Amino acid sequence: MLGLAWLGGLCGVYDGCMRYPDGGGLSAEGRARREKVRLQAAQLFAQGVRVPQIAGLLRVSTKSVYAWRRAWRWGGEEALASKGPGGYACRLDDGQLAELAAALEAGPAACGWDRDQRWTLERVRALAGRLFGVRYTLRGTSYLLHRLGFSPQVPAHRAAQRDEAAVAAWRAATWVRVRELAAATGAWICFEDEAGQALRPRKARTWARRGHTPVLAVSGDNGRLSVAGLACLKAGAPGRFFYRVHVHRRRKGRRPSLSEDDYATLLSAAHRALGAPLIVVWDNLNTHRSTAMRARVHGRRRWLTVIALPAYAPELNAVEGAWANMKNGLGNLADCTLDQLEATVRSRLRRIQRQPALINAFLGQTGLTLESEPP
Question: Contact at 8 Å (CB) between 131 and 99?
Fold first, then answer.
């Protein structure tokens, strides 16, 4: 009897059941499918078919077939039947699980943790005790979260001042007008944004011998440069990308960032290269809204139309994809001078310019399209 029980447990392992409170590693459909395969193997055992042949016919490993045959010899086909989900039964019923999931989805701030908005195992355990009067261990809390379909993730930060209604209205109305204006005038829709890259690089993972933290030689200077990028898009045309780099060398009396003249020069260069009107979409940077910039935009540039993005909505700007592409691989950067950093950044920006399909793909990341939606 002991051997039969042990083999029955072994079959439970091969059934894919994990000792988690989420009902095992397989769904009910998955367990039924696995059980059907094992019962097919039992019929082949009765016919005297050899193990390697059964493994080939059923597309399973010979190790599994040998385990099934041992169980079949002890208890017949009943020993190969599914034992159901593994692990202990959950202490919460379906209604309580749904209530807990809703509380977790609402976020830590809605449950009282408004300063440090993280769901930790300790907080989820405290929440379950507060709602249902049950006490879990930290490991049990982890299993409970897996049961609900949660996993540890790095959150995306979003400004608390953001107006979701304004963002939705911009998508639904303003972008439609921009698209219609571009189609009527033959203009290019140009997204503009700025980014910075410092000599002191961000940390990135690297391989090293276990137990020995690697030490890399990087620049200790905090020098930086600023880049303005212009992703130009037009329906049926390959994407174009223009940029302007400003190196901040800490000289007295020199502006540490891009000026209105830099932006005006960038827009004029794009207009000459494209030979068509421009509809520039950019954010509410103070330089974009300055009196000097307004004079340049509404002055002699009749080919230029400016559209402002809603506040705190970087996901609507297609150039964000260009910055992600440019900075990919710049972790642990070994450049030690601003000239080296400038050469590296320019090289990556030129690489983006040579990939029109990539530039068009930047718009896809925003969820916006150049084509009119069907009625």
Answer: yes
Q: Are residues 185 and 326 in the same domain?
A: yes
Indicate whether 176 and 226 sit together in one domain.
Answer: yes
Q: Which two tokens stand for residue 142?
A: 């982890």
Same domain, 101 and 173: no
Round to whole Å and give the CA distance between 30 and 17.
Answer: 10
Number of domains in the chain: 3
CATH number, residue 194: 3.30.420.10
Q: What b/e string do you get for 72-82 counting C-beta neighbours within 10 Å, with b at 16 or more?
A: bebbeeebbbb
What the block records as the tokens of 127 is 């929440």
**Residue 156 lies inside a defined structural domain of this protein:** no
Instruction: Encode 15-40: b = buried (16+ Cβ within 10 Å), e = exposed.
Output: bbbbebbbbbbbeeeebeebbeebee
Residues 6+ apart with CB under 8 A from 179: 189, 370, 372
pLDDT tens track, the chain, 375 positions? 333 333 333 333 333 333 343 444 567 788 889 999 999 999 999 999 999 999 999 999 999 999 999 999 999 999 999 887 766 678 888 899 999 999 999 999 899 988 888 999 999 999 999 999 999 999 999 989 988 889 998 888 888 888 999 999 999 999 999 999 999 999 999 999 999 888 777 777 888 888 888 887 877 777 788 999 999 999 989 999 999 998 887 666 677 788 888 999 999 999 999 999 999 999 999 889 888 888 887 766 789 999 999 999 999 999 999 999 998 877 777 777 888 888 989 999 999 999 999 999 999 999 999 887 655
Q: What is the largest CA-CA distance in the chain?
A: 94
Instruction: Assess whether 172 and 63 both reside in one domain.
Output: no
Q: Tell me: do 269 and 342 sit in the same domain.
A: yes
The residue with tokens 């000097």 is 292
Instruction: Based on the fold, state whether residues 143 and 67 are members of the same structural domain.
Output: no
Domain extent for 38 = 2-80
